[in-house]
Design goal:
Blueprint (H helix, E strand, L loop, with lengths): L2 H16 L4 H39 L3
C-alpha cells in the first residue's frame, strides 16, 4: 500500500470516528465525558471512605 493510500485510509477512519462532528465538538464531548468520569470516581472514593469508617467503627465496637 502506498503512502497516499495509507493517508487516505487514515483520513477515512478519522472521518468515520468523528461521525459528522467537528473537531471542536469531539474535543468538547471527550472533555465532558472525562469530567463525568472524574466525578464518578470521586463519588466512589467518598462511598468507599464512608464504608471503611463504618467498618472501623463496627470493629472497635466489637472489641476487634
Amino acid at each position: 500500500m502506498s503512502e497516499d493510500e495509507l493517508i487516505q485510509q487514515a483520513d477515512r477512519m478519522i472521518e468515520a470516528a468523528m461521525n459528522g462532528r467537528t473537531p471542536h465538538q469531539v474535543l468538547l464531548e471527550n472533555s465532558l465525558a472525562e469530567s463525568a468520569n472524574v466525578a464518578e470516581r470521586a463519588a466512589a472514593i467518598a462511598k468507599n471512605r464512608e464504608r471503611a469508617i463504618k467498618l472501623l467503627a463496627a470493629l472497635e465496637k466489637s472489641g476487634g
